[in-house]
Amino acid sequence: MPLQQFNTPGFADDLPADLKDKWGKLISSWIEKEGYAKQSPDSYREPAPTSETEKSDFLKNGSFLVFRRLKQDVATFNAYTKTMFQQLTDTPDFQGEDYETFLAKIVGRFKDGKPVLFGDQVVPPENYNNFNFNADTPAFRLHNGKQVASVKADQPGIKCPAFAHIRKVNPRDLPTDLGKETDSATFRIIRRGIPFGKPYDFDNLDNPVNETERGLLFLSYQTSIERQFERLTQKWMNEPSRPVAMGYDMLVGQNGEEDENGIKWCKFMNDNRKTKEVKSEKTFVIPTGGGYFLCPSVSALRELIG
Ligand code: HEM
């Protein structure tokens, strides 16, 4: 069942994967390569099994689940994105930028889920996942006859910045510091975010509800927690120089360096490829709990109970 939710800063989360024709194909090739659904003792695993016992059939067809309780500080996000917007638009090169587009660039999508790469184009929601960053995406036709429009790539990150959340956690067809372009799909996770707490009242900032806790219960399935979830979070969201040196994931990322006071930065790029760095010393997402779990396959569970 497609589940469209609005997480607390007001951005659509967990967009329904409507483009099954296209993404279904991509996911299948990834499954074959990484052994997601057909995991076997000989499939790729990290760390590699060191003994025959570790190579047991128990993991076959199983997956790993990550759970994180992520508290969101919406008031701080609101206040500090305004400060960052001010820093950006104080520069003559970026004076035309509007606040909604600025916010969308931090996420990589507008509030309704439309990718920021599409700019002002009116695009039906079934096109919302049909884009790449490195190469133009050709038009194609769905089973039901609907035409899905072509999309221009944005390798330098002018429309969708290299630090945008969705670009950090899914570089799609871009080559990265961790591999060539065809490797990028192998870091993908299957994910669901469930909001908790009461929505923030943007119309009445004094509403006592704004003092209560809210955030996202984040869940993801993957073959390897180390190679997928941990790389996305530690190596890309929280690393300003990776995959490219254009900054932190300003929505979810954190700067954990002891002597840097938590300051995060990112670089916006305009049409003339002029860049401007903006900074914030605040963290908007705070992990408050979670765990790593093994989800064995039904056949493994049957084996266990005899
Ligand atoms: C409270 C924290 C978070 C917020 C507010 C958040 C918000 C969002 C939003 C608004 C989107 C775009 C809509 C969508 O595709 O559903 C998105 C996409 C995504 N997020 Fe997060 N996210 C959070 C944490 C995380 C974490 C910890 C990860 C782990 C790596 C993650 C991975 C992803 C992925 C893989 C996508 C899809 C990217 C794509 O469409 O190509 N997110 N997130």
From TrEMBL:
Pfam families: Dyp_perox_C (PF20628). One of its GO terms (molecular function) is peroxidase activity. Keywords: Heme, Iron, Metal-binding, Oxidoreductase, Peroxidase, Signal. Signal peptide: none annotated. The keyword Isomerase does not apply. Residues 180-238 form the Dyp-type peroxidase C-terminal domain. GO terms for cellular component: cytosol. Its cofactor is heme b. It comes from the Bacteria. Residues 35-55 are annotated as: Disordered. This is Peroxidase. It comes from Pedobacter cryoconitis.
